[in-house]
Amino acid sequence: MKILQINTSVNSGSTGRIAEDVGKVMMENGHESFIAYGRGNRPSKSQTIKIGSKIGIYLHVLFTMLFDRHGFASINATRNLVKKLKNLKPDVILLHNIHGYYLNIRILFNYLEKAGIPVVWTLHDCWSFTGHCTYFDSIGCEKWQTICQNCPKSRYYPASYGIDNSKMNFIDKQSLFNAVPDLTLIVPSGWLGKQVSQSFLKNKRLEIIHNGVDVDVFTPMNQLESFKNKHGILQKRILLGVASIWDKRKGLADFILLEKIIPKEYRIVLIGLSKNQIRDLPVGIIGIERTEDFHDLARWYNTADYFINPTWQDNFPTTNLEALACGTPVITYRTGGSPESVNEETGGVVEKGNVDGIWDTILQLNQKDQILLRINCRERALHLYNIRERYEDYLTILESCSKKIGIN
What we know:
Blueprint: E1 2-7, H1 13-28, E2 32-37, E3 47-50, H2 54-67, H3 75-88, E4 92-95, H4 105-115, E5 119-122, H5 166-178, E6 183-187, H6 190-197, E7 205-208, H7 225-230, E8 237-242, H8 252-259, E9 266-273, H9 275-279, E10 285-289, H10 294-303, E11 306-309, H11 318-325, E12 330-333, E13 347-350, H12 355-366, H13 370-384, H14 387-403
Parallel strand pairs: 1-2, 1-4, 2-3, 4-5, 5-6, 6-7, 8-9, 8-11, 9-10, 11-12, 12-13
Helix pairs in contact: 1-14, 3-4, 4-5, 8-12, 11-13
């Protein structure tokens, strides 16, 4: 079987790493793996296909900002991709994030409608069934259940400062996405599955596959004293936050508020910040730029007493799973599917914006047997989020799709 995936990036960020790992599992089971991507230059075990150029991405950004038609630029880039797909003749196509300023969804889905190729689409957010936004729960918007218009999040990603075309986007997406006859949807969380069941995609086959992590990389470690000493935190209790991009949505402002109420023996460490963000941090917060070194990231998870995820809108954050696999308890806001990764034996859930509640939860967890707490975290990750098992679920679905049209 020849499997082709399409995603914004390859082997970088949460969705890029998912695509890379799915590709590895495909190849280990005797299949060919290709990944088409929009930006970045990370190495991949799969054969890669670059979509478009930097200039094309910039033009797509400008088109979106002016006309609120994200996903309807990048015409030449997508036509070239379709030509390559016709030559490649994949047996199954697996979509991930198709937003991100690099694809034209009309050209892509017109091809998918007629190609006779089974399509599987992993929804990592809500963009597929809204007229504009990737998430709506931060403001409680329910227009997507009927028809989007007069979008209250038009200036949020994918930001538009011109006319509001959310209604046209909604209608076009509904028509394009439902026209593909053999489309299977995968969601990483029960929360997103519920949203899909209330959207215009409700009649499509739907499967839930939780995200997974490499439990051999993200694993409990000992003898980290030299690592702690290197970063000047040997005598500190660490509250860790990790994100690919830090902004209000990920809770950066909440960490700044948290720093004001925690005692001096605690230190907040945030990974994934820009140089400017690091420069503007309060003295009590250690800022670190984004890293693709998973082993270094695993050391930070192990160093932390608690992983804090005050995300305001999210699906099923992989960072929660990485922390659990390292034996680190997780405290998260009640946002999207984020609470689904945590139970009472492995962390806590706090209402969005309740920074005092984060500290209260830390105090409550401090009263528990810390060794047992970390054992429970590791066991939960091994049982539910082992990357090998989760991506074998992908293998099962992709192979079942190929069998429907007689591919061996």
